[in-house]
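for the recovery benchmark. tokens below, seq after
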């Protein structure tokens, strides 16, 4: 058995929550490997200390203070979620407006190009019309 696997199972070994064959393998590994054995002793020392400590009994109105902190944190979380939702909505609106404005600018630029073309075409046709009119007037006058 490798050290990594042993170290990952030390707490289960401590509480005797592994199958018998795995318990035996870890026990043999701990006998041979000083690093894992040292790790196990540290863990066992900490868990033994926790087990031996007396049960903590809260003093007076301790629960009220804890309850107030929890409700305050819940309120803060709610406010942050609302703020997050508002920020997302504002981002979507801004993105839509920017998209709309850039689309409008694009359409206006195309329309402007076409208007310039049509204006030029109209001007040319007017010039041609006046030239034709001038020729027609000249023909009529000459006759």
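predicted aa per position
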């Amino acid at each position: 058995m490798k050290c990594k696997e042993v170290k990952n199972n030390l707490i289960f070994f401590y509480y005797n929550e592994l199958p018998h064959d795995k318990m035996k393998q870890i026990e043999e590994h701990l006998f041979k490997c000083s690093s894992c054995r040292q790790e196990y002793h540290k863990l066992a020392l900490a868990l033994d200390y926790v087990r031996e400590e007396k049960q903590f009994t809260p003093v007076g109105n301790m629960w009220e203070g804890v309850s107030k902190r929890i409700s305050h944190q819940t309120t803060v979380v709610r406010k942050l979620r609302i703020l997050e939702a508002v920020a997302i909505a504002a981002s979507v609106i801004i993105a839509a407006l920017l998209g709309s404005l850039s689309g409008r600018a694009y359409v206006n630029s195309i329309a402007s190009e076409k208007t310039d073309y049509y204006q030029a075409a109209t001007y040319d046709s007017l010039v041609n019309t006046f030239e034709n009119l001038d020729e027609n007037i000249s023909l009529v006058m000459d006759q």
